Amino acid sequence: MSITAVSQRLSNLGEGPHWDVTTQKLYYIDAFVGDVCRLDPATGVTEVVHLDGITTFVIPFDSDSSKLLITLTRQIRKLDFTTGQSELLTELPPEPSTARFNDGKCDAKGRAWTGIYL
């Protein structure tokens, strides 16, 4: 087995990887920095959209992989990676105020699942 670095970008806490088969790119987040990243392993280029908050997962929509389901601290949002604009889909109730979204993935039926960190 051979392991090779494909990017020089360093993350504070890079996690939540999602390989997009359609675009052949790797989406991931830099959690505490608030970055949503898209790596093209063929070129080594990482594109970044910065958001104000804690990001914990990123999942491209099947219909358009530039549209992403993301968490941003206490919110679930739809992010347009091309424009950097996002739309609020839902958010946690006010209490407990310390709660925030954590890791998440889609199941085989395309339903998003996420945990909550208190």
Automatic annotation (TrEMBL):
Gene Ontology terms: biological process: L-ascorbic acid biosynthetic process
UniProt: a divalent metal cation binding residues: E15
Cofactor requirements of the protein: Zn(2+)
Domain SMP-30/Gluconolactonase/LRE-like region: 13-116
Listed name of the protein: SMP-30/Gluconolactonase/LRE-like region domain-containing protein
Keywords in alphabetical order: Metal-binding, Zinc
Cross-referenced InterPro entries: 6-blade_b-propeller_TolB-like, SGL, SMP-30
Source organism: Trichonephila clavata
Cofactor binding description: Binds 1 divalent metal cation per subunit.
